[in-house]
Amino acid sequence: MKRRSLINALIYASLILLAFCFIAPIVFMLVGSLKPDARVLVEAGSLSAFLPEQVSLQNYSDVFARVSFSRYLFNSLLITGSIVVAGLVVNSLAGYAFARMQWRGRDWVFAMVMMIMIVPLEAIAVPLFYEVTLLGWRDTYIVQIIPFIANAFSIYLFYTFFLGLPRELEEAACIDGAGVLRTFITIIVPNAKPAFATVTILTFLTQWGAFLWPLMVTSGEAVRPLPLGIATFYSLPPLQWGDIFAFGVMMVAPILVVFLLFQRWFVRGVAATGIKG
Amino acid sequence: MRGGLPAWLFAAPSLVGLLLFVALPFVLAIVLAFTNLRLGSPLPLEYVGLEQFRRLYNDDAFFHALLNNATFALVVVPLQTGLALLLALLLNHRLKGMAWFRTLFFMPVVFPLSLVAVVWVLIFAPGANGMMNGMLEVVSLGTWTPRDFLHDPLLALPAIMLTSVWQGMGFQMVIILAGLQAIPQELYEAAAIDGASRWRQFWNVTLPQLRNTLIFVVLVTTILAFRLFDQVQIMTQGGPHNATTTAMYEAVQAAFARQQVAKGSAITVVLFVIVLLITWLQRRLLRQEREVE
After folding, report:
1. Does B242 touch chain A (CB under 8 A)?
2. What's the whole-number mean pLDDT along residues A17-39?
3. Range(s) of the domain holding residue A32
4. pLDDT tens, B201-226?
5. How many domains does chain A have?
6. Chain A contacts of B15, Cβ < 8 Å?
């Protein structure tokens, strides 16, 4: 018994030590955002990096005065929101067609989708950049939305989930004479909430942080999202770390709140990527 | 269920999307890599055969880029996976407060990489003021001389590695934790009856049961190492002296800053071949496992 509690104490001790390393940068950012700009760098090497002496929201109002934060936020919400919503619709429909409908060429097309799943954005970014340049889409919202709606991995996640649903669900609806689309909307969707939640979270996480693609296809702040906003703000003289951290806190706060509220779903969503192999 | 036309209609929107924005650019990448395409260039578009690849082969910056990607993978993959495994094992104990710790370790995953990179630029600030310098000074009992991490050819890449491990570790941890929780409890009970110590249980039960999860995690992280871009763009711009440049950074520089779409395409083709090889390796390793069973 005594040995057991010694082991537990060791487990807690290692967890707390590691937790400190993981939380330090976050606390540093939060505390820095509340300090006068000049103090942030000066105190970064000492313990006062984690303890604000005078707390003020000056940096937050400075952010709004120096850049159009609300513009970046609006752009991020619009782009990410559109991709998530449109993606849920088209990818769930496709997942359903692969899982539950018989059609010529289905297995062949599904094999293609599985192959597409291994192509990372980075491997096609340059030709895609050329393609949208030819289309005249640069510097728009659609160039950041349309190419990312259809997603092979989302289709795959829906497909595996629909495969696991009992067939009786549809059979009952079929007897009632409901059409395929109606069956899908009224019977399948309400029973597939976990799949929708998983895809929403994974899509949201990827798209909210998107940096490479918006950097390539946009210029100027009109249509740029938050990740480019912070990079621009960081390179904008004068270098004021308090303001930058305030920008960062405001950028991550919405996701952190959503994450803390729906933690279980985040964890499940990430664990779901593990089944891919 | 009957299909035909409705099935095609269900699948069509996303299939069209995948064709236009993944398959087509993919084919385009292969085609363009064999041309001299440069946006706004007065030269006519020509088929140049393997010329772009020959140039890449002799391109010093690209050589450094691939070397950096490989180094990054060789260091970050074991480090991050090891740390994730350790944390997952610790969190797998049924003790009070574990959910809190899990939340905490997972938190950096929801941070956009661009923000993480900016915050870590300040952590790596030069001089005694920098947080990393300050911490190392305390740990080394005052023997550490402050360094300018991000402008030091030897330290810049390790700095980016550390930043990436901090942000990405939680992702692996959660996948491994799910893998641990899927191991049937009976296996441990049987091992305990056979008198196996906890250490032996780890080697003979946990690790073999976790094999597929670990293969997946290792190979996904390796692929991520070859996709490295955001941190480099923000923290070092590939410098100093190509010490932190990556394949993706070179591709964007070529296509975007110098309008050399053909060169950028050639780089992405190389990148894709690497990803394909890693994926093929993963499938093979996983298939072997199934055959053994």
Report:
1. no
2. 87
3. 27-56
4. 899 899 999 988 998 899 889 999 99
5. 2
6. 94, 109, 113, 150
> Which residues are bridge partners to B47 per DSSP?
B35
Same domain (yes/no): A187, A219: yes
Is B174 inside a domain boundary? yes
Report which of A75, A70, A82, A73 is spatially closest to residue A204, judged by C-alpha positions.
A82
Is B275 in contact with A120 (Cβ distance < 8 A)?
A: yes
Classify A195 as helix, strand or coil.
Answer: helix
State how far residue A242 is from chain B, nearest Cα, in angstroms.
11
Any residues with CB less than 8 A from the CB of A102 and at least 6 apart, and which?
B1, B2, B3, B7
The reply to whether A261 falls in a domain is yes
pLDDT at B293: 44
Chain A residues within an 8 Å CB radius of B221:
none
CA distance A267 to chain B (A): 6
On whether residue B32 sits in a domain, the answer given is: no
**Residue B167 domain flag:** yes
| H-state helical runs in A117-240 | 121-135, 142-145, 152-163, 168-175, 180-183, 189-191, 193-208, 212-217, 226-234
pLDDT tens-digit map of A146-176: 999 999 999 999 999 999 888 888 887 777 7
Q: What is the pLDDT of residues B173-199, one digit of tens each?
A: 999 999 998 899 898 888 888 888 888
pLDDT-derived band at B145, boundaries 50, 70, 90: confident
In a domain, B5, yes or no: no
* 8 Å CB contact of A101 and B114: no
Considering only CB atoms, which chain A residues are within 8 Å of B97?
12
Mean per-residue pLDDT for A121-144? 92
Tokens of A40: 């942030």
CATH, residue B232: 1.10.3720.10
Count of domains in chain B?
1
CB contact under 8 A, B112 and A109: no
Chain B nearest-CA distance from A19, in A, is 7
| Residue B279 with chain A: CB contacts under 8 Å | 118
ipTM metric:
0.89
Average pLDDT, chain A: 88
A14/B90 Cβ within 8 A: yes
- Token pair, residue A45, equals 């090497």
CA distance A148 to B18: 9
Residues of A in contact with B95 (CB under 8 A): 8, 11-12
Q: Tell me: do A34 and A156 sit in the same domain.
A: no
- Kindly report the CATH number assigned to the domain that includes residue A243: 1.10.3720.10
